[in-house]
């Protein structure tokens, strides 16, 4: 070979070597470089999250490595705090808004220099603003499960009612057509289950939704500190004025003296009564759709948004939102943020919508709409979903129950019940 040929061949060989190295180290578009493994603990269902990550990794050039541990809601606080004390905590947690507030001091806010408040609000639904703090974003929204209304089409049709109720005040007229009692005045068929707690599924969330529709946030921050306060009946807050009509509406359905009387504590659980075909409407979460269909495939039912207050300025339903929070003790918070961000892109979350049959938390995905008859309702509900930060879900349930039962039993008037309940709620919120 001539000197020129040797040089030319050497150049080609060098190019081939460079090409092989570049191909071997190529990680794909969108900055999908190999990310370090992270650990996540939470109350979110493990099978669903594991399947979600597995499905995403099928098409990723570099797989996400997330070790997830599900802990029951009842045991999460104790397990998490004890692990942190031993220096064994996870990189991130995945919990609902009910558990976040009590652990705010254990998570690191994402600075607004990394994720601006404007970008956050433009990206995620309104309920996600619960995660905004003066120091940054406390959690990255992941999943939302809103309250909706299931209604029995056969019951409505047989009663000559053509459409489902869009406003709460429509239940009075519809109840006159649907409600049925036996000779002993026992309720046999009824339009709605409100006014009691023990046999009403999601009673806390339903009553809370009525407060939210009245413009009452249920809880609010007194300052940038971790101090929360009750808004449901505070004497020095607009809460009492807005909460009274909501509480009176809720309790009237269990008052035998009221013309709208349609529910009492002797009846079965509201979901069971709906499945038996004797309850015309059931207020439940979007995630219950498949369960209702499987438990009684013979019911001809449909789904509608939660009814609203006529003329109300605050369209709202309650939503259970799960979000990822980065733990302060994480060895590499930046890597944890990078990994979690990959789970929240539109292309990733579309997989979760398909798997869970629940609406996305991103506004751009909701704006694209859905042709599915159920998802279209869930999408609309996600836009108006709201919630509140709490410290003890069981305790707030008990307080809400006491408020209602003190009114229905005649022990207190609605105003006094709300004020007393608000004072007790304040103590529970500050007892972290």
Give a short overview.
The chain has 432 residues and is of the alpha+beta class. The chain has helices at residues 3-25, 46-58, 73-85, 97-100, 117-123, 153-158, 171-178, 203-213, 239-252, 270-275, 289-295, 333-342, 346-356, 363-367, 373-384, 393-408, 414-430; strands at 38-42, 66-70, 92-96, 132-133, 136-137, 140-152, 180-181, 187-189, 219-221, 228-230, 281-285, 301-305, 317-326, 385-386.
Number of domains: 2
Q: What would the CATH topology of the largest domain be?
A: D-Maltodextrin-Binding Protein, domain 2
Instruction: Identify the CATH architecture of the largest domain.
Output: 3-Layer(aba) Sandwich
Q: Which regions are unreliable across 5 or more consecutive residues at pLDDT < 50? A: 3-31
Strand content is 15-25%
| Share of helical residues | 40-55%
CATH top level of the largest domain is Alpha Beta
Major β-sheet annotation = 8 strands, mixed
């Amino acid at each position: 070979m001539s000197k020129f040929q040797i040089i030319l061949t050497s150049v080609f060989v060098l190019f081939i070597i460079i090409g092989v190295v570049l191909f071997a180290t190529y990680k794909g578009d969108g900055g999908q470089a190999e990310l370090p493994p992270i650990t996540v603990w939470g109350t979110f269902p493990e099978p669903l999250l594991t399947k979600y990550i597995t499905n995403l990794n099928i098409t990723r050039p570099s797989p996400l490595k997330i070790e997830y541990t599900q802990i029951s809601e009842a045991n999460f606080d104790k397990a998490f705090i004890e692990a942190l004390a031993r220096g064994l905590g996870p990189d991130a947690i995945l919990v609902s808004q009910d558990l976040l507030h009590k652990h705010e001091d254990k998570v690191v806010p994402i600075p607004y220099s990394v994720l601006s408040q404007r970008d956050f609000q433009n990206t995620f639904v309104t309920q996600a603003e619960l995660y905004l703090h003066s120091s940054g974003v406390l959690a990255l929204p992941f999943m939302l499960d809103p309250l909706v209304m299931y209604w029995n089409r056969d019951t409505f049709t047989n009663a000559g009612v053509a459409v489902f109720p869009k406003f709460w005040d429509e239940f009075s007229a519809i109840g006159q057509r649907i409600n049925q009692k036996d000779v002993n005045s026992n309720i046999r068929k009824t339009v709605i289950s409100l006014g009691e707690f023990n046999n009403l599924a999601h009673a806390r969330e339903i009553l809370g939704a009525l407060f939210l529709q009245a413009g009452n946030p249920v809880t609010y921050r007194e300052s940038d500190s971790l101090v929360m306060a009750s808004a449901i009946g505070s004497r020095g807050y607009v809460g009492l004025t807005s909460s009274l009509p909501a509480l009176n509406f809720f309790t009237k359905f269990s008052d035998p003296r009221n013309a709208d009387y349609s529910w009492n504590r002797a009846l079965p659980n509201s979901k069971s009564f709906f499945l038996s075909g004797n309850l015309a409407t059931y207020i439940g979460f979007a995630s219950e759709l498949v369960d209702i269909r499987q438990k009684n495939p013979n019911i001809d039912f449909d789904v509608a948004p939660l009814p609203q207050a006529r003329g109300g300025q605050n369209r709202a339903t309650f939503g259970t939102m799960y979000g990822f929070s980065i733990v302060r003790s994480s060895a590499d918070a930046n890597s944890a943020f990078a990994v979690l961000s990959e789970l929240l892109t539109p292309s990733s979350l579309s997989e979760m919508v398909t798997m869970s049959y629940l609406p996305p938390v991103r506004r751009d995905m909701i704006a694209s709409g859905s042709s599915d008859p159920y998802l279209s309702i869930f999408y609309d509900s996600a836009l108006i979903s709201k919630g509140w930060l709490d410290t003890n879900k069981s305790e707030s349930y008990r307080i809400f129950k006491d408020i209602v039962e003190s009114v229905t039993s005649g022990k207190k008037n609605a105003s006094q019940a709300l004020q007393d309940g608000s004072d007790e709620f304040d103590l529970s919120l500050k007892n972290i």
